[in-house]
Amino acid sequence: MAISLTHSIVCRPSSLFQRYCFRNFTVPFSSTYATSSALSANKVRSHKWRQPVVSVLEIGGVKIGRDDVVRDDPTNNVPDTVFSKLGMQLHRRDQHPIGILKNAIYDYFDKTYAEKFDKFDDLCPIVSVKENFDDVLVPADHVSRSYNDTYYVDAQTVLRCHTSAHQAELLRRGHTQFLVTGDVYRRDSIDSTHYPVFHQMEGVRVFNPNEWEESGVDATSYAAGDLKKCLEGLARHLFGAVEMRWVDTYFPFTNPSFELEIYFQEKWLEVLGCGVTEQEILKRSGKTNNVAWAFGLGLERLAMVLFEIPDIRLFWSTDERFTSQFSEGQLGVKFKPFSKVKHLSPCLWTMP
Ligand code: DAH
What we know:
Blueprint: H1 33-48, E1 56-59, E2 62-65, H2 66-69, H3 80-83, H4 97-112, E3 118-120, E4 126-128, H5 129-132, E5 152-154, E6 157-159, H6 167-172, E7 177-185, E8 197-207, H7 209-215, H8 219-239, E9 243-251, E10 254-264, E11 267-277, H9 279-284, E12 291-298, H10 299-306, H11 320-323, H12 340-343, H13 346-350
Parallel strand pairs: 3-7
Antiparallel strand pairs: 1-2, 4-6, 5-6, 7-8, 8-12, 9-10, 10-11, 11-12
Helix pairs in contact: 4-8, 4-10
The structure holds 3,4-dihydroxyphenylalanine.
3,4-dihydroxyphenylalanine binds near residues 16 and 273.
């Protein structure tokens, strides 16, 4: 998913976690004048566009009150506009492009792995700092932890900024092949390809020694080979017979790490990030004799290409001229533009 660390075009990486775009670490709760005044400016702005906000919502059986998430407290930087997106769960709507894409990916995994992957799509997006960062080895001084980049509910709690936040817990609970889909939150400027709320899918697969020992290759090469085969199959399932390439990259949670790119509509398009899970993550989850792979992909980025949706803000539109264009199971129906500027709510253009 195209999410930036800075506003500069040269340095707008697809992932918050890639090394080449680190910038100086900012202390999350710095009480400097600059930080607190930026926060109050945000609050003022969000009040201006405030829509009626539901005050209690339920996600995966957990009741969440507005006052649990939006608080007038220096450790909290969640505006009402962002709270209003919690519980919308576009990825659970079978007739929404994000839900249609999720289901198409589910179909691929069900078919390829005989329904062996466990699927999670209603895990609560409010997670601990430990789950979001520490458990997946994000360094203590990494920019993604900063108050500027992440929505903090309090000093120990955030709105997840990636679905990788659930990896360690699910491994600890004994899951060895799983997909996690959910809404993720990052503080960012808004434009046609960036929005502070978007959707990701995470996949993890763990192997036992007998699996790689039989193959005669070492554990890491075995997992990397299986990962590439799986994801090339997924890309063909979604995009047809496209040209693909693998690019080496860096993520704190995997080593080696890769990105998959496909040549689509005369451009190289980054599809996802992935790699062989760091042993430390497996070890902490009680898996000392295993190897695993993991991937993460941004659903909006792919849905925009597949459905030809030109602006990421349209995914939030309730205008019937948008919603009525998509039907369950219909991946890649081409979106027919209408006058979007007039019909999107003002807060979609300015939030947070
Ligand atoms: N969490 C990464 C992000 O938000 C995406 C990702 C990359 C997930 C590599 C993974 C992975 O599991 O192995 O940009």
